[in-house]
Design goal:
The chain is mainly alpha-helical. Among the domains are: about 170 residues, no CATH class; about 130 residues, no CATH class. The chain contains 23 helices and four strands. A hairpin with a 2-residue loop joins strand 1 and strand 2.
Amino acid sequence: MKPRCLLLIGLFVVSCSKEGVKADVVQETASKIDVALLADYQQALDAERQRPGTRPIPALPDQLPEFAEDAAFLRRACIDLAGRLPRADEARAFLADASPDKRARLTDALLQEPGAVEVRYRMLAEAFRVKDDGELAHFLRRAAADDMPYDQIVATLIGGGLLTRRDDGVVLRTATEVSSAVLGIDMYCAMCHDHPYGDTTERQCYEFAACLAKKDGLEPVRLPRDYLYKDGTPGEVVKPRFLPRSGGLLESKKPRAMHKPDDLAKWIVSRDDERLATMAALRAWSVLFGKPGLLLNRTVGGVDEAPAWHDVHPKPLNNKVSSNCFGPPVRDYLPWNSLEMRNLPRAAHVMTQEFRQAGMRIGAFQRILARTAAYSRAGHAVGVQWGAVFLVPSPQIRRLPSEVLWSAVSDDRAVLQNEVPPVAHPLRMLGRGTREWADESCEPVSHELVRFLMNGAMPPVSARDADTLFLEMLGRLPSAREKSAISDQQATPEDVAWSLVNSVEFLFRS
């Protein structure tokens, strides 16, 4: 190992001792992830320094962010893990606590709250496109509450036919969304033609979809009427078959003529291939750190209405109307929806291994990620400066989740239970998606958002003093300058609350 990497790891150990991290199994696992993250960062930094000629500007930062202030960490952890802003009494106690293990105790406690279950549920609901309070939603809520192993969740969804029923039996839709959300394999192009930049052919896409058709009496899958390749004829019934291994795709060691959804579910969750666990681990990472590999935080204006899955223009697919060649709507970018397993950094593989060691339980793995030194660091800004690092060892500075932002400015909690609020509802403008696509919701920053905060409903004010308002909304006490401004202007609690809601510090978690 290179001297610089050893130095960084040594600094990590020292910093952990300063933070007073407890030497338990969870912390040991978190430390393994930290070591891998630092090694990947150091490798990228060395590559930048050894690049011939003029380095691109801006170059990769020569050092990582320092550890976050207690107030910033408290607010971030409450939002990420429990889906809420900190309470005033909670903030006072945390800021006054001098115990070296207080961050670990905080994150452990937050993960036991009902809000943590809701955070896990929303993550699953986004992945599996829950649109109503039906059978699929009820199962995922129970799975989130029990912290059910992820492989069991996937096996039940696929083998039990919950996803095909969600898609009204359109198995091509189910197959392409499962391949993207569960396996990290992009088959959107292959719905219409051989993937020009990938390894999946159109026939393989249909064969994979046919694995889901042997359930609930669904009709056989046929090649489309405009099929042009020599390995099939238009309208031909295709036999179910798993995806082949090519460029990192999955394969069946002993391909059989017929596969059923139960077989497909067992095959996916029993594979030694890392895809299932890697996708789940990166999904859990994204809740705490932001989406990996993201270079640009897209700004979306107004309600970015996602097109229905079949509404681009008609093309006969299995005797139904579906889309032409297109992928998910540009609400946000999913960096891992087409995983190149061979090119993933070491930290991704370490996280996959530790996710498995945690029993593939998302809540248990979140507890590990929250204990890492990386999560305790101050946030970094999303941008090309970090483009050389797939998993940056500090959280991205991100906008508040739609649900947290709505709860802060409205007394209406009922709409939060709606999987897809009406298109005109502000929650949609804040980023809640249509669930037409996996992981469609985002956290946009737009002029419409600014107008909403400036002119929208006044946030409910229960506190009557500035200290409490600052603690509840920002997780910190007001500075002497802020106190002086409040006093000089004789600001009411409503004035203070409105000013805080419209501040950049409130809108983002760092």
